[in-house]
Specification:
By secondary structure, this protein is an all-beta fold. 0% of the residues lie in helices and 58% in strands. It contains no helices and 8 strands. Strands 1, 2, 4, 7 and 8 form a 5-stranded mixed beta sheet that branches.
């Protein structure tokens, strides 16, 4: 499983994370479609998909995904799935922990 641990995110932040598939692609292969999902890895959140804001976007070998909100104390497992120009399905995983924002 290809995975990364993202920098913690404050509950009030909205930011974009990048999933880079460059090392997984053959010469000349491109990304055709991309989607990102969120599930709870640890903690409790009845709506983990709410951490995903909008659709994933492709730029070259990278997929950008905007993340927002989240429940303090929860670690999310983000799954970025792409289909390539050669009909491969590739997946990268990332762990995202939510911390309280500054008061």
């Amino acid at each position: 499983m290809s995975r990364v641990v993202l920098e913690t995110k404050q509950s009030g932040e909205t930011r974009t994370e990048i999933f880079d598939f460059a090392s997984r692609l053959a010469l000349g292969e491109t990304l055709s479609t991309a989607s990102t999902t969120a599930t709870v890895y640890s903690g409790t959140d009845a709506s983990p998909s709410a951490v995903i804001s909008g659709a994933a976007s492709i730029s070259g070998t990278q997929v950008s995904q905007k993340l927002t909100a989240g429940t303090v104390g929860v670690t999310y497992l983000l799954t970025c799935t792409v289909t390539t120009s050669t009909s491969q399905t590739l997946i990268l995983y990332a762990f995202l922990s939510i911390v309280p924002g500054a008061n």
